[in-house]
Amino acid sequence: MIGSNIDFGPKIYFGKQEFTIDGMRRTHLLYGKYFKPELGVSYISYKYTDSGTSASDYLVTTSLLFLLGRQWVSDRFVVDFNGGVGYAYRATSDSDVNNVLENIPVAIKIGFKIGFLY
Question: Across the chain, what does the average pLDDT equal?
């Protein structure tokens, strides 16, 4: 199985900063609550053997998600948690897909990231 995935979208920060000093508007540009519309594309190619014959299929998924998240920034680390729902479209070369759950056009995403500042 071989695949790739790419997700991109802008983070739009909102809300009041919790850790501010008098006269300071923000502690860090990347700190706080945000809304992120995100567009994603995934491609998976896989091979299988059925009754002695070898075959290959592919799966392409595109999604438009609306995420709400929160990001914390310290001196060296960044912690980000987000989640949201959206619409997904799936195209596959497999004509035997019968599962009803695979054909529902709803995408759900929950994310947790830890990063280092340099």
Answer: 82
